[in-house]
Amino acid sequence: MRKIEHLGIAVKDIKKANETFAKLLGKSSYKQETVESEAVTTSFFEIGESKIELVQATAETSAIHKYLDKNREGIHHIAFDVADIYAEIERLKSEGFIFINDQPKQGADNKLVVFIHPKSANGLLVELCQERS
Ligand code: ZN
After folding, report:
1. Ligand 1 centre and the CA of 118: distance in Å?
2. What pTM was computed for the model?
3. CA 93–ligand 1 middle distance (angstroms)
4. Residue of 31, 45, 49, 68 with fewest CB within 10 Å of its CB?
């Protein structure tokens, strides 16, 4: 793993959160994108080598919607940048980590992504992401 690619923040109202984070970070979101497969809309802020990803559900079937039924808004996942997502999946499986989806899928921000189940990572939802070339 090379760096923290982004922190994912679950929000209820992405418009309001965009304004709050723009004030907080002193810059605007550089990209907003809906990911149909996850039923979420996302907004990205660059902060040094990392990013903040705001995530709002677009449907009740969304994992973010279910998450916010049980939890407050706030940090939802940490995403690590990896050079070879398939090699990392193999390595982490051999270390006993459990994946939510077995195969990487198209995520926001032109990335291939896969998630590790929180139950195998001290309660933390971990995303691995690899830049698509
Ligand atoms: Zn993410």
Report:
1. 14
2. 0.93
3. 20
4. 49
Residue 24, both tokens? 């907080």
CA 71–ligand 1 middle distance (angstroms): 17
For residue 111, report the distance from its CA to the centre of ligand 1, in Å.
Answer: 10
| Rounded mean pLDDT, 76-98 | 97
Q: Is the dihedral of CA 70, 78, 129, 91 positive or negative?
A: negative
Q: Which two tokens stand for residue 21?
A: 């984070």
Concatenated DSSP letters of 26-78: TS--SEEEEEGGGTEEEEEEEETTEEEEEEEESSTTSHHHHHHHHS-SEEEEE
Measured in Å, residue 95 CA sits from the centre of ligand 1 at 23
**Given this model, what pLDDT does residue 37 score?**
84
**Which residue's entry shows tokens 């690619």?**
5
Q: Measured in angstroms, how far is the CA atom of residue 59 from the centroid of ligand 1?
A: 18
pLDDT in tens, 54-82: 999 999 999 999 999 999 999 999 999 99
